[in-house]
């Protein structure tokens, strides 16, 4: 059976989670409240709109539609300023090795991200050419933990959902992969990502032999 790999972007390929956090914290501070790193965990993998809803809940702020729309734009403008100077140095350790390994074996690779900024980021870090399909926040209507983004990616790759393997750093992303019946690999804190099929701190822990065994298991 044909196997496919799906990578989340933020926090998996590049550490943009810190820039999202800085931009949301700036907005929170401007609105007069604090926003902690712990609270930011809930924002990982979650759409921009949903993030703002959660942020306003945290700050107990009621917004008009106009304010809501303005703050969404403000946050993204700040985020874009943070990522403006991004380059290949911001690719997380060993991500290129794993991409290269899969490419050499002709395994189809997709991006499955909630971000509307996914494509420009991949371009900045020069990784676009590895991806057979890029599914991002512009192509989905339902945000993670809904499996839509990963199901579209599987479909684009021409691979059955159950033959896909997903790398994710967000709880919502692991849940999305699980409900798509995919193999989920948590990248980050295994206590937070305890619903994943496998857990690794980062890609340096993912050996070629692990990938090999996963491939042979999934292709049966
Ligand atoms: C990723 C990040 C989230 C972010 C979402 C939308 O999933 O993990 O923290 O909110 O993308 O990103 P965007 O770039 O469209 O605001
Ligand atoms: Mg992520």
Shape descriptor? globular
Number of strands: 6
Percentage of residues assigned to helices: 40-55%
Amino- and carboxy-terminal Cα gap: 6 Å
> Mean of residue pLDDT?
96
Numbering strands along the chain, what is their spatial order in the largest sheet?
Answer: 3-2-1-4-5-6
Strand coverage percent: 5-15%
Structural class: alpha/beta
* Small ligands present: 6-O-phosphono-alpha-D-glucopyranose, magnesium ion
GO biological process, one term: carbohydrate metabolic process
Cofactor: Mg(2+)
Keywords: Magnesium, Metal-binding
Family: Belongs to the HAD-like hydrolase superfamily. CbbY/CbbZ/Gph/YieH family.
Summarize it:
The chain has helices at 17-30, 37-40, 48-58, 65-83, 95-104, 118-124, 148-157, 171-179, 208-218; strands at residues 4-7, 109-112, 133-135, 164-168, 183-187, 198-200. It has 220 residues and is of the alpha/beta class.
Notes on the protein architecture:
The chain contains nine helices and six strands, in the order βαααααβαβαβαββα. Helix 8 links the parallel strand 4 and strand 5. The chain is globular and about 55 Å long. It starts with a strand and ends with a helix. The model has no long low-confidence stretch (mean pLDDT 96). The site of magnesium ion has 9 residues, from loops. The site of 6-O-phosphono-alpha-D-glucopyranose (G6P) has 18 residues, from helix 3. Its cofactor is Mg(2+). This is Beta-phosphoglucomutase. Belongs to the HAD-like hydrolase superfamily. CbbY/CbbZ/Gph/YieH family.
Characteristic terms for this protein:
single chain; 220 residues; alpha/beta; 9 helices; 43% helix; 11% strand; globular; binds 6-O-phosphono-alpha-D-glucopyranose; binds magnesium ion; magnesium; metal-binding; beta-phosphoglucomutase activity
